[in-house]
UniProtKB/TrEMBL annotation:
Keywords: Coiled coil, Cytoplasm, mRNA transport, Nuclear pore complex, Nucleus, Protein transport, Translocation, Transport. Belongs to the GLE1 family. Residues 70-131, 329-373 are annotated as: Disordered. This is mRNA export factor GLE1. Residues 71-83 have a biased composition (Low complexity). The lineage of its organism: Eukaryota, Metazoa, Chordata, Craniata, Vertebrata. It comes from Myotis lucifugus (Little brown bat). Residues 329-346 have a biased composition (Basic and acidic residues). GO terms for cellular component: cytoplasm; nuclear pore cytoplasmic filaments.
Amino acid sequence: MPSESRRRLSRCRRESLQALRSSGKGRLCYHRDWLLRGEGVLEERASTPQLSSYAGWVVDHVLPHTQENLSASETSTSSSSTSGLDQPSFVPRSPIRSLAFSPASPRTPATPGGTKGTRESQHTEPMLLRSSRGIEVEGCIRMYELVHRMQGTEGLRLWQEEQERKVRALSEMASEQLKRFDERKEREHRKEFQDLREVLDKSSREALAQQEKLKAEHRHRAEILHLKLWEAEQQRLRREEGQLRLRSLYALQEELLHLNQQLDSVGQHRDPKVDLLALRSRGKQLRGLISGIIRTTTENGVPTAEDQAVAESALQEMRDLLTEARACEDKRRRQDEEEARVKRQDTQVQQRPEVHNECPAPSQGPGGTRSEGLQVKVQDSTMQWHQQLQEASRQCVLAFEGLTGSKDSQVKKIKMDLQKAATIPVSQISTIAGSKLKEIFDKIHNLLSGKPVPSGGRSVSVTLNPQGLDFVQYKLAEKFVKQGEEEVASHHEAAFPIAALASGIWELHPRVGDLILAHLHKNCPYSVPLYPAFREGMALEDYQRMLGYQVKDSKVEQQDRFLKCMSGMMRLYAAIIQLRWPYGTRREVHPHGLNHGWRWLAQILNMEPLPDVTATLLLDFLELCGNALMKQYQAQFWKMMLLIKEDYCPRIEAITSSGQMGSFIRLKRFLEECLQRKEVPVPNGFLTSSFWRS
């Protein structure tokens, strides 16, 4: 029955396909990228294909059922074979089973025997049939595997060729990109190298330019330095030459003053004639000329050769004047002698011999006075007093030399505390109230008396060091004079409270007063009064310091500053001699009262005036002390004022240049106003009784 046979064959196929799907190979997963799994897959493809283990099961279970219908038409068998060949992938292969059922299999044992041989003979024909079918199935399977392997190999070959083409394309593209990358990097490197070379060239050019510039600057600076050195050397030579010229000018001035004194002494025992008066007037002009030259060179620098030539010509002219004056005096004396001789002869002829008349006395000036020249040097007694004060100051410095020269930190601390305790209270003096001034006085008095005083948060006493008292007295006196030089010079009314306190300390501690005078005379020699003389071999800077100028780094202070400092110290001195401390017990006399001021005024008027300095200091003294001198000396004071106006002012005017007439005009106006009103005004800032009650 063909339909039944077809159904069985179809069922067999389904079972075969189901068995193949259930096999291990049927359960494998195939991937498109199987080539990427490695070389194992290729080796597996290249190996000899073998039947699956399921091929025997197919032969055992499928083929026996198909043998029952072998009597069917050949078409069914062919159809079955064709169907088996059409789907070889669904028939499992088993090389073991195929070999077992193969008719030529050498493994079939030849078992002699009855039953067993019969059994084997009974099954020999079916086994042969199954072996033939198995061979057919195995061939189909092998053919399918071969076809599949050929297709896989071809696909693999095509895929490999495609991949090789892609790889070659990618390789070529990568090579091209790498080439372009290398070219770009090479261009970049070439550009960087070019830029670097340009930068280096530019830096080299800039360095060369900078080097040339530095060389030029160095040459310029070297030239400037050489020029400065040359100028400094020239300036040093000019300074040395100027110092020599200035010393020569001082020597010429001294000689000219000496000649002027001789000129004034010529004919002083008789009435001077017109020619002698003219010579003396010319001598005063020459003296003022040299004084003006020296003052101008002191302010502006070193004297020039023209100044020295003018001074030498003035000195020569003074010598000629003295020679002419002496010649006139000799001529006049001879004329007087001749006249006396003739008169005696006439008298002898006219009178009797027994009558004798004495020769008349030399004629005198008006009022029985005679004109005398002014002094250049201070009186011997005043000079001796000045030297004693300076020696006392030097002895005081030597007394505390161990304190100032000690390197012990404790001693240095004591020295600083004592200096602050002595100087700070003096700096606090003001015109606020008398009670404040009394507190300062008590603090200074207690310090000098050996009592402890507060200073900087600590208690300080002169008993802390054996040399403490000498040190405090010296520093206190120095500070008083320093206040006059600085504070009083700027604020004239500050002279009175400082002078009052200094006067009170002077009464209780006389040594402090002597040290004040020593410092005052040293810083302001005109308060002696003293005009220091220039000695041979003395340095110019030392002489300027002796005159009161401050010299720092070979530079002399300006004339205005110098006059201001001298004025401040002179005002302080004029205030001290007229004031007394109002508190406590007073002595009968002032330790340095108005009599010393009268002595100073008399001595300054007996000395040759100095340009600008004499007028300034004289005006300061009279403004501060004139009212007190007027009250004490009365008529004598007014005679002194008249003498200054009529006799001394013309002398000052004769030596004062047109650019220095300010102080002289103020002095002259002050004298005229006082003489006109017959009163000297009370100075500004004078301490009244209301101040001491405040």
